[in-house]
Amino acid sequence: MAAGMRFTVMLQLMQAVYTLALDSNFLPLLQSHSLLVKDTDRCPGCERTQQGEFSNLLETESNIPNKPRLRHVREAEMLFVLELAVSENGNGPFPQRVGLVAQLEPGSTATLVLEGPGMNEDPFSFNSASGEVFVHKRLDREEKDKYRFTMKLLNSSGFTLKEVAVIVNVIDQNDHRPQFLGQPYVARIPEHSEAGTKVLQFSAQDEDDPNTGNGELRYSLLVPSPNDTWPVTFEIDPNTGELNSTTDPARLDRESLPMLEYSVVVKVSDNAGSDAALINTATATIIIEDINDHSPAFLETSVSLAVEEGTYGHILNLTVFDDDAPGSPNWLAVFNITSGDPYSHFNISTDPDTNIGILEVIEALDYETMANYVLIVSVTNEVPLVDRTTVGPNATLTIKLQVKDRNEPPVFSDPVLVMEEPENMPTGTTIIKLNASDPDTHNQGFRYQIGSDPAGWLKVNSNTGEVTTTTKLDRESSYIQGDHNYTATFLAIDNGSPSATSTATLLIYLEDENDNAPMLSPTIGWACHGKINSTVALLTATDIDLPPHAGPFSFSLGPLATSVHSKSGHAFRLNHNKRLQSAWHIAPLNSMTLSLINTVWGTMNISSLLQTLRKVALF
């Protein structure tokens, strides 16, 4: 190693580590002699000597990456301390000396400067003459655990001769209690769980240094203690905080335990649980959770009842008992009809509050189809039973149900009948034959009867059901509804006690015939004296029949048309009086309307003329 080359040596003294920056001129001394180090701050008046071979501890600056070689300085025989330590929470008085980081030979013209965040009494200061560092206030390691400064050696011209990093470490004190995380703690453990089953994970943290005993945590149980008489017991891993059950699975039976909730108090200690440790506690609620280890059972295995045919809705309550937790899926019953309901007439639902099964008829029962039922009903839970549970003999119920007969009304084969017939058909025409039957199997008869016949056009044979007309059916009648339908109803009434009745509706669509002449309006018009070639009236033709038995119309003057002179009162036939014939003519405007025009002097009554016109049916 060349003379003047810088190197570093790591020393341990009084449980503190120092890094020394020395000149290579000291190398022979270090390799062949002991190193005498004094620390009057930590141990006033005492000396410690570090013995040993130092050759393997030497590290030349030429081997340090990214670190420039420094010029050899004549005043190089000095000591740099690259790391200092100061305890947090110091009580002063302040400023308080932290330690010596560098020292110049007497008479040296060089200057020491220590720079970086935290200097200028915030919280540190540096005495450049003595090379000492001071702290000016109490420190908190949890706020800042180390301070980094730069030590510069300046010549008399202010030129930097050497520059090294100096670190002041804040030494941790045990000034924070560990804190539990994730509170409140609530856990559930299924009944009959095996011993060793994990119940809960406790977790805590400590703001003190985790690399020292101050942050080393230990967990323990306060309640229950090993001497407690609880039937349910637990243990906690002191290092991980995992809480496990230690209870015999046979004793961990929810239905036999005196209580189902247990409060476990856990203590966490720092400083590895020593007597000087700071502690904290947390309480966890442990709930014993139900499993489906009891099968539901009916209170009885057989029941009988009678129900009248035609009944709908609720007919029977099915009561079961189950020792599992009420309201839970392990307790709620599920009912199934496994046999005896070939036509799916029945359904069973569960009342969630009482766990009672409600048997209902959802399709009306018919005595004539099936008079007796034997229903086999099974009961389970919403969730399956656990493997070790067996189903008891009361898990099925036999229901013997008798259907009671009642008088049912006759049934029309077609309750709504639609037919199409021409109007004006001859009186006494048979238009349809009603067809009904009585579903009752015993000897019982019935008769037909008119329910409603607004126009009185129909009659029905009470035995055969034949429906005939009593008069001609007129499509233009006011009894005909908007779609040209005539509606009548018929009854089928049996002779039971009391009697039962059913109804059929007959809709008759009447086909139109040309049985109504067209009509002209208005029927009176006047041609005043002095108005020649004037329009006496606009005449409009209408016909209550339907096309093609109505418009379009054609118009002409009839042979019997007459006119009456308003002065003489004489009536003249147009075909006998040439003057009157030439006095009128018509001018059609369209297929429905025409103009009647007068071409002579005088006022004429045209009512007779119009009466003749409107009696002509034109096609």
Automatic annotation (TrEMBL):
The keyword Glycoprotein applies. It is found in: Cell membrane; Cytoplasm. Pfam families: Cadherin. It comes from the Eukaryota. Keywords: Calcium, Cell adhesion, Cell membrane, Cleavage on pair of basic residues, Cytoplasm, Glycoprotein, Membrane, Metal-binding, Repeat, Signal. Residues 1-21 form the signal peptide. Residues 124-180, 181-298, 295-412, 413-520 form the Cadherin domain. SUPFAM superfamilies: Cadherin-like. One of its GO terms (cellular component) is catenin complex. This is Cadherin 13, H-cadherin (heart). It comes from Eptatretus burgeri. The lineage of its organism: Eukaryota, Metazoa, Chordata, Craniata, Vertebrata.
